[in-house]
Structure formats: structure tokens, C-alpha cells
């Protein structure tokens, strides 16, 4: 049984280590959007290169995050976490010195691999290290500090882009890793290692999943250019997706067991997740560009302007979870996406000369309230829709689905909205396409609300409850760890 107490010096070191590690991945997933216009100008990159700057990271992260958690269980959570931090920092250094867009995109893909190793491990280390009496408070502090980091991140990122330059958005990860790694090696106890040692890793499934995401993403981003390569990529991506499903059905220890989708509620909530996080991923990618390219904000101004959504999530998500416990998840999962859709439609007012107080802030407040309403109930419903022993797996699948939805939206929305390769250099053209994209995002959110209203029901009273009560991230729902009874039993 884990015995580290939160009040002890070791407990504080463990908490610091996990906060630093998870913050590296969380910040990069949000701050990079603010830096995109400057990256495009400095590296002479077109819109598709900016899309890949975001999506290369998301492809490897979404495709490998389940495998990363399994590696920690097998070889030791601290070991895999430390490897992930070192890998992430090395890839960040390569991002920071990238001489051109091609190198930056490749380095971002490597960053995603590091993120897939360290992201599951940060919460797992807390759950495996702290005494049961302190674990809830430790998780609360971890999620709270992570939320603060997510709130501060766009502000710091904007300041770096406008000041020392966009490269420091990535280079900042190196000193963080230099603090995190020695503290982890000295103060964090090892856990895992030997658990489920009889099983085989589903490396083939992970590779097929990542390849399918990469090929379909490529086809969507390059579809505007047309040609045989795009068609072949689309067909090959769909073939890889079919092969992934077939492999998962036949393997004895699949990464994503198909029978978990036998739960109608689990399937429905993941469909809601796909709709919601596709819209949110597309929104935060395009909104950072809209505020800078069309409205004329600096990178710091754009990062600061987007803060209300994260702050509302951090302050109110725990209360939203309590409300959903009382009234059930169907109403929050229906109303939340509709509020988000309303917020995105309000963004249609944000154009040249827009006022922050009269135009931008109301849209972001409505969007933030919608996110507050839906995120905590979504996590709780995912955990409650499967057996307790599969709650950690269910959370991982839901988290991966959200990230995959976001990357698909970043790939597809510019195509659907008619954005050309040079659109982000032409304010009038970008503004027109942004309005169309917000309509697509609102439509996806309405679809999610309809699914929730039709299918979602209250989970059983004895299901696993979320441990991450505060959430400040905007790219994916909280990633919950394995249930206690499985880990300690």
C-alpha cells in the first residue's frame, strides 16, 4: 500500500514533480496556438504547415497515450515518466532551434511521443505514491496547480512570443525538465513494474492507430491541392483504421478492447466527446489566429484574451460536477454543448475593430460556461458507464478520442471553410473563412447535445467517481488513473 503522506517533505516533492511534468505537456498543447502567426512569418510557412505544427504533436500523442500508460504499468511509472520528460525536453529543444517548418513539424511529432509517456504517468504517480487518506487532497492540488498553469500559459506564451521570440515557448521546457528529472529520481518512489507482466504490448494496434490518424490528417490538410497522393493517403488511412479495428478484435490484450463499446452509454458519451472536442480544438486553433490576423492583437493580447474560458473551468468545474451528481448528466451534457455553440456563434461578431468588452469577452464567457457545464459530467459519465476495473481504460480511451477529434478538426476546418494556403496573411479572407468555421463548430456541438439528450442516462450509484475535480485544460477531458481496488487489491 502507498504510504507517502502529503505533509511530508517527500510528499511535497512528489507533488512538485508531477505538476511540473504534466504542465510541460499541457502548456505546449495550448500555448503553441498563440505563437502560430509569428512562426508562420519567421519560417515563411503556409497554412498547412501551421496546421501540421499543431497536428504532428496531436497525432503521436493521441495514437500512443494508451500505450504510454501500459508501459508505465509494466516497466515502472517513475521510469517511464522520467523518460517521457527527458524525451519531451529534447524534442522541445529541437523545436526551439528548428531552421525550417519541416524540422519543426518533425520535432513536434517527437514531442507528442514524449507527451504520451509522461501524461498518463503524472497522475498515476500520485495515485500510486500517496497514502489513501491523502490521495484525494493530493489529486486536488495536482489538478488545481495544473489548472493554474493552463490559465497562466497563454499569457506567458504571448509574452515570450512578443519578447524573446516564439522559440522560447519550446526552449522553456528544458530548464523545467532539468528541475523535474533529478527531483523525480531522488524523491518519487517507483511503482508498477511487473504488473500485468503476463500480457503483451499492443504495439501493432498503437502504430496502426497513429498511422491512420496521420494519413487521414494529411489527406484533409492537403485536400485543397488535390492529386493522386491525397487520394492514396485517404484510402491508406481508412485501410489502416479498418486494420486497427480488426487487430483490436483479435488480440488477447488489445489497447482498445472492442467489447468496451458494448456499453451503449460509453459509446454515446464518446460520440459526444468527439463532437465537443472537435469543435473546441478547431475553435482554439482558429481563434488565436483570428484575434491576431483580423482584430490586430499581439500574441500577448491574444493569449490574455482567451483566458476567461480556462479561469471559469478552474473556478467552477468542481461545482458543476457536484450539480451533475444531483441532477444526473443528461441535462449538463445537453445544455453545455448548446452554450458552447452559442459562444461560438457570438464569435461571429469578432472582426476588424472588434471591442474586447462588447464582442470578444461575452463570447468567451458563454463558451467558458458551456465548458464548465459539460466537462466534469462527461468525465463522470465515462467512468460510470463501464465496470470499476475498466474505469482507467475508459478514461484513457475518452481522452484519446478527444485529442483525435481536435486534430481532425484542425485538419478539416480550413478545408470546409475555404481557407487558402495564404489565408492567415490576408485578414479579410481569413475573417470570412473564420465565420464559416464557427458555423461548422456550432453544428458539431448541437449534434453532441442531441446525442446526449437522446442516449445519456444517470450512471449507477456505485460507479467510480472522478478524482480530478478541478480542470483547466481545454484540449481534452481529465485523464483519470486506474481504480484503487484494482491497484491495491
TrEMBL record:
Recorded coiled-coil stretches: none
PANTHER family for the chain: EXPORT PROTEIN (PTHR42718:SF42), MAJOR FACILITATOR SUPERFAMILY MULTIDRUG TRANSPORTER MFSC (PTHR42718)
Organism name: Streptomyces iakyrus
Its membrane topology: Multi-pass membrane protein
Segments for region (Disordered): 469-489
CDD domains: MFS_MMR_MDR_like
Localisation: Cell membrane
Parts of the chain that traverse the membrane: 12-36, 56-73, 80-99, 105-126, 138-160, 166-189, 201-221, 227-247, 268-289, 295-318, 330-348, 360-388, 400-417, 437-456
Pfam family, one: MFS_1
UniProt name for this protein: MFS transporter
Amino acid at each position: 500500500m502507498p504510504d507517502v503522506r502529503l505533509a511530508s517533505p517527500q510528499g511535497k516533492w512528489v507533488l512538485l514533480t508531477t505538476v511540473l511534468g504534466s504542465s510541460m505537456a499541457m502548456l505546449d498543447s495550448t500555448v503553441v496556438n498563440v505563437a502560430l502567426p509569428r512562426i508562420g512569418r519567421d519560417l515563411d510557412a503556409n497554412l498547412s504547415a501551421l496546421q501540421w505544427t499543431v497536428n504532428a504533436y496531436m497525432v503521436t500523442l493521441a495514437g500512443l497515450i494508451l500505450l504510454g500508460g501500459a508501459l508505465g504499468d509494466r516497466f515502472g511509472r517513475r521510469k517511464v515518466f522520467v523518460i517521457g520528460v527527458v524525451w519531451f525536453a529534447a524534442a522541445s529543444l529541437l523545436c526551439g532551434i528548428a531552421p525550417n517548418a519541416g524540422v519543426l513539424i518533425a520535432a513536434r511529432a517527437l514531442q507528442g511521443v514524449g507527451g504520451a509517456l509522461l501524461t498518463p504517468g503524472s497522475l498515476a504517480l500520485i495515485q500510486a505514491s500517496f497514502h489513501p487518506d491523502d490521495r484525494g487532497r493530493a489529486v486536488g492540488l495536482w489538478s488545481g496547480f495544473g489548472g493554474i498553469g493552463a490559465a497562466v500559459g497563454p499569457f506567458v506564451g504571448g509574452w515570450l512570443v512578443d519578447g524573446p521570440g516564439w522559440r522560447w515557448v519550446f526552449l522553456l521546457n528544458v530548464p523545467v525538465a532539468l528541475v523535474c528529472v533529478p527531483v523525480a529520481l531522488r524523491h518519487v518512489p517507483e511503482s508498477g513494474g511487473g504488473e500485468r507482466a503476463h500480457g503483451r504490448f499492443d504495439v501493432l494496434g498503437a502504430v496502426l492507430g497513429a498511422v491512420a490518424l496521420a494519413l487521414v490528417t494529411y489527406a484533409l490538410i492537403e485536400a485543397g491541392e488535390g492529386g493522386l497522393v491525397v487520394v492514396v493517403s485517404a484510402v491508406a488511412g481508412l485501410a489502416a483504421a479498418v486494420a486497427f479495428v480488426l487487430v483490436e478484435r483479435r488480440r488477447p490484450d488489445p489497447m482498445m478492447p472492442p467489447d468496451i463499446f458494448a456499453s451503449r452509454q460509453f459509446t454515446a458519451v464518446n460520440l459526444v466527446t468527439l463532437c465537443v472536442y472537435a469543435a473546441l480544438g478547431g475553435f482554439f486553433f482558429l481563434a488565436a489566429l483570428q484575434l491576431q490576423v483580423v482584430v490586430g492583437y499581439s500574441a500577448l493580447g491574444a493569449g490574455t484574451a482567451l483566458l476567461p474560458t480556462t479561469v471559469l473551468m478552474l473556478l467552477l468545474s468542481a461545482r458543476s460536477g457536484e450539480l451533475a451528481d444531483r441532477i444526473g448528466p443528461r441535462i449538463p451534457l445537453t445544455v453545455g454543448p448548446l452554450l458552447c455553440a452559442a459562444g461560438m456563434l457570438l464569435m461571429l461578431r469578432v472582426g476588424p475593430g472588434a471591442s474586447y468588452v462588447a464582442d470578444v469577452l461575452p463570447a468567451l464567457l458563454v463558451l467558458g460556461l458551456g465548458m464548465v457545464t459539460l466537462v466534469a459530467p462527461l468525465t463522470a459519465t465515462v467512468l460510470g458507464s463501464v465496470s470499476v476495473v475498466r474505469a482507467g481504460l475508459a478514461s484513457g480511451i475518452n481522452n484519446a478520442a478527444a485529442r483525435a477529434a481536435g486534430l481532425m478538426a484542425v485538419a478539416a476546418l480550413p478545408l470546409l471553410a475555404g481557407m487558402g494556403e495564404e489565408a492567415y496573411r490576408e485578414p479579410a479572407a481569413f475573417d470570412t473563412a473564420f465565420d464559416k468555421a464557427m458555423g461548422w463548430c456550432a453544428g458539431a456541438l448541437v449534434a453532441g447535445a442531441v446525442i446526449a439528450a437522446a442516449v445519456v442516462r444517470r450512471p449507477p450509484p456505485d460507479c467510480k467517481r472522478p478524482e480530478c475535480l478541478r480542470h483547466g485544460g481545454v484540449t481534452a477531458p481529465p485523464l483519470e488513473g486506474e481504480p484503487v481496488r484494482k491497484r491495491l487489491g
